[in-house]
Specification:
By secondary structure, the chain is mostly beta strands. Helices cover about 15% and strands about 45% of the residues. It has two helices and nine strands, in the order H-H-E-E-E-E-E-E-E-E-E. Strand 2 and strand 3 form a beta hairpin.
Length: about 180
């Protein structure tokens, strides 16, 4: 009797719950969610603090993060393009996150660090290839800072989810001709 009541309650919940609430979680993530905070230099002249003299930087998104498959694994790429700025330091971490299906939470399974002096240009970019063995959904998580003369940009980016079958394509050895 107890099992019948529980089953009836579960069935009633499924009928009442909106299907669209579950459809958003089941669909693969295609967009890039980002949070960027721009660090502006502190003004040295504080004598004139009228609202007309305070300049705030325009919000831009200089980062781009994309994710794809290659013949040897999963390839994560990022680029930073901020015209007019001279990049002095790159300090970023790219994590590969995994979940078996849409009911599971994301967990970090691999990562790559990018820490090097910038080339004093307005563009920096890099990539890393990951070699996962399990089938499921993967995404990239990029965090860190790119410093430029006079400030820097802090980023936290997530790529869209990518399904992967867990198989790495390895070229077969050449056949011997007789």
């Amino acid at each position: 009797m107890f099992k019948k009541i529980i089953t009836l309650m579960l069935f009633a919940f499924i009928l009442v719950a909106p299907i669209s609430a579950f459809a958003d979680e089941a669909a693969p993530i295609e967009s890039v969610n980002s949070f960027n905070e721009h660090i502006a230099p502190t003004p040295t002249d504080t004598t004139n603090n009228t609202p007309e003299s305070i300049v705030t930087p325009q919000a831009t998104d200089p980062f781009n993060l994309w994710f794809g498959t290659s013949s040897v694994g999963l390839e994560g790429n990022w680029s930073f393009n901020y015209p007019g700025k001279m990049v002095t330091l790159v300090s970023l971490t790219m994590d590969l996150q995994y979940r078996k299906n849409f009911l599971d939470s994301w967990e970090t399974v691999d990562g790559a660090g990018f820490y090097y002096p910038g080339g004093l240009g307005s563009t920096e970019e890099n990539q890393s290839t990951f070699y996962p063995t399990e089938a499921g959904q993967y995404r990239l998580h990029l965090t860190g800072n790119v410093s430029w003369i006079g400030g820097g940009t802090i980023c936290t980016l997530y790529s869209g989810a990518k399904s992967y079958d867990g198989k790495i394509i390895i070229a077969s050895p050449p056949t011997e001709s007789k």
